Predict the 3D structure of the following.
Amino acid sequence: MVTEELGVLSERELEVLKLVATGATNQQIARELIISPNTVKVHLRNVFEKLGVQSRTEATMEAVRRGWVTVGENAVAAAAGADAAPAVAAQPISLLELMPQAPARTPVARWQHAYFVVALLVTAALVLLPAWWRGRSEAGGLSPFSDAGRSPVAAPARVDAQRWSAGALLPQPRSRLAVASDGLRLYAIGGETQDGVTGDLLVYDPVTNGWLPLANKPTPAANIAAAYLDGRIYVPGGSTADGGVTHVMEVYDVAADAWTAGTALPAPLAGYALAAWDGALYLFGGWDGAQYRAETWILEPGSGEGWREGAALPGPRALAAAAAHKGIIYVIGGYDGRVALRDVLAYDPGAADEGRPTLAVKTPLQHPRAGLAAVGVGVHVFALGGSWNADGSFNEQYDTRLDAWSRLGTPMAGQWRNLAAAPLNNKIYAVGGWSGTYLDVNEQYLALIQQLIPFTGTG
C-alpha cells in the first residue's frame, strides 16, 4: 500500500518524476508510459503537491536532494518539452526505499554540502544553457528567428528558369511574412523589414499586376503563416516588434477589409507551419520564445470550440512548412535548433477516426530546408526556398503518387529563405524572403499548363 503523506509518491508518480529528470516532455512521457498527456499532467500536479514544489526544475532538484536521481557525469539537457528540465541520470529505485524510515541521524560532512551545491549549479546550468543556445544561430550568435543584424549584401541576380516569371515587386522588401490567396487575389501580411517587424497588409491583383495597401494587421508580427477559410484569413501568433513571441490570433475579413481578434493559441508560438483543410486550421511545431515545439494544434473556427491537440510531430522543430493536398497535410523540413531538416511527414486528419496512424514518414527532401514555403498543386507538392547556403540553389517537387522528390529550377541564384508562397489559379506565387538582404521579389511559377483540345463533332 502506498501512503499519501507529503513526499511519498506512488510508483507511477515516481516513473513520471524520473522521466521528468531526464528532460522528457509530457508527450514523450505519455508515449513512454503509454498514457495520455493529460494523465501525465495530473501525475505532475500530484508530484508537485507532495513534494511542495512549483515547477519541474524544483521537482528535479528535490529528487536530487533526496537521492532519488543523481546528476550524470556526461548529462546533456533534453531540449524538447513543455518546460526545459535539467538533464540528470535517473537511477533505479524501489518503492520501499522511498517509504518513511527512521534512520539514525548522522552528521553531514562539509564536502557533502559542497557536492550538493555544485550539483545544483550544474543542474541549473543544464536547464538554462540549452534554451539560450537554441535561441541563437551558429553564425555569430544571431537568432534563427530574425534576419536583423546580419551584414547585408547585394541582392542576387535573377536567373532565367523554366516556367518562372517575375511579377510586380513588393513595395518594400521583407522576409518572414505570410501569404494567402482567396482564389482571386494574393494577400501579403506582416513580416520583417530593414525597419523592423511590420503589420502591413498588401493585396496583389494578377489582372493589373499591382500591389495595393489594405488595413494593417493590429499586431505587427513576423515568423507567421496565414490560411484562408470562408472569406477570412487567419494569422496566429508570431514574433513581435519587441523580440517576444505572441499567442494572439488575428483574423482578416476580406470583404470588410477589417481585422478582428480570433481564438488565441494555447501558448505563444512563432515559426510554426500552418495549413487549412476541410474547414479547420492545422498548426505544427514552432518556437515559444525558449524552446522548439513538437505539438500539433487544431482549430475549427466555426465550431465555437478552442484549439485542441492533435498527434505530435516525432521531434520539435520550427521554420517548417505545411501544405494541404487532397486530404493529407504535408509537413516539410524545419530547424530543430541544431540543423536544418530533410523530414517529410504526412498528417492525415481523418486517420484517427478510422483507427489508422495519423502521421506517416515520407521520402525526405533532397536538400535540408528551413524557412521554406510549401504549396500543393495538381499531383505535386512544391518545396520552395529554405536553403541556407548556395548548395541548395534549387527547389523541389514531390510526386504524391510515387512518393518521390525531383529537382525544380529556381529564379534565385544562391540561398533563398524565409519567403512565403500561395497558389492562385494555375500558378504558385513566391513572395519576399532573404538572400543576404531583404527581398521584394514576386516570383510566379506556372505549376499547371492548360491546353485546349479542339473537338469537332460529326453531324
In short: Confidence is low (pLDDT under 50) at residues 1-7, 72-106, 126-140.
